[in-house]
Structures are given as structure tokens and as C-alpha cells.
Amino acid sequence: xxxxxxxxxxxxxxxxxxxxxxxxxxxxxxxxxxxxxxxxxxxxxxxxxxxxxxxxxxxxxxxxxxxxxxxxxxxxxxxxxxxxxxxxxxxxxxxxxxxxxxxxxxxxxxxxxxxxxxxxxxxxxxxxxxxxxxxxxxxxxxxxxxxxxxxxxxxxxxxxxxxxxxxxxxxxxxxxxxxxxxxxxxxxxxxxxxxxxxxxxxxxxxxxxxxxxxxxxxxxxxxxxxxxxxxxxxxxxxxxxxxxxxxxxxxxxxxxxxxxxxxxxx
Length: 266
Fold this sequence. Notes:
By secondary structure, the chain is of the alpha+beta class. The chain contains 9 helices and 11 strands.
């Protein structure tokens, strides 16, 4: 799609969405287009690599219910960003508004984004910047958005990421495993309704995650299994969280909120 700067300024409205790098624009004058959003890259740096990344992504079919790039966007002949689906009335996993969603809705949203991430990984793509701001929940489920900083095979430059993690005092390299660990943190932020992610932005040791789920047998065993696989070079992924989501006890989560609060605010 080609657009002029005048068209962008005159016909589109900037959306203020926290957590999403770059700018999002929607054409409020065209009802048909309100299901789509323009994602403008946050800078013009590495545009050649970004175009290569978009070409790779769009060689596959779109991932349903995600913000997967659907079409490249050019401004006066220069790559500006891409077009993706837009999820109105949704909010991020660490928003205070998640309190308005039922436990079942949170579980479904978590399963949805886990399924979308699995499909991303099946395409040999590392999402790289998994964080609560890039994960949305609404009445229909969950959505991964913002594909600006994904890593495709043979990528030359590692792009931006909100935060990184370490294990046994060593940084965890950009990988499918790191994606899954960050997703796990985001899902726990959603379920416990506390911004657990913020803790790990500053305290990067992923083994600390066990302390947050110490009183929940199902989650403790799952996190333990994930940690035991981090250094296993024979596996490029960890267990996916969908495998245990329906085994989670809502009462256990509710009881565990006081423990989470103490860990975050001690």
C-alpha cells in the first residue's frame, strides 16, 4: 500500500497504545478499514533488514487473531511500516483493566497467545520482544501484536527488546526458549493481576520465577521443568504453557496473589 504524508496526517488518527513500539494509525473515516491498523516503524534505521523481514513473514499465511503483517506500507515510495488486524476494545496483559475479565477469559487469552507463538516458532521465527504490552486480551481471546522486532533465519542484527533474562548467571540468548520464558512471565502477570514482568525487567534471573508460584504445585512443577530445559542443546523449545493452563486452580491463583504482592513490594 502506498500513502502520502498528507493522506497520513489528514485521514488517519494516531492511537496511543502503551507497550507498542512505533506508532499506530487508524482511518476513522472509513468504517471498513477500522478492523485494520497501520504500524509505523519507530525509526528508519535498518529499513533494508526490515523489508527483508516483512517479505519473509508475508511469504506465509497470516496467523489468525494476531497482529501479523498483512501488507507493507510505503510513504512517498519509502518503506514506512505495515498493515495488520486491529483489535478494538482490547488491553494489554498488565493493564489494571484485566480485573474486568473472568478467570476463564484470561486462561483462553493465554492459550491463544501461546498457540500463536507456537505457530510463529514453527515458521522458524523468534518473536524476540515478548512483553505484556505486545499481548492483548479482549472478549474474543488473546492476540500477539507488534512484529517489528522479530528475528528471521540468518538475521544480521539483533533488534530491540524491552528486557532480557539470565539463568545461572548467564544471559539467555535470543531464542524460542527466551520467547517462551517471557510469555510465561506475561501470563503470570495476567493471571495474578500484578505486573510480575516489571520485576524481571530489573531482576533478570528467571529462576526467581519459582518463588512466585511456590504454593501452586501445578505451576511450580511446570516452571521447574522449563528451567531444567534451558541448557538442553538438544531441544530448541521449552514445554508450552498451554499444556497446563486448564489444570490451573483459580482458587490457588487467588490465594497466591498475597505471596506475589509480597515479592513485588518487599
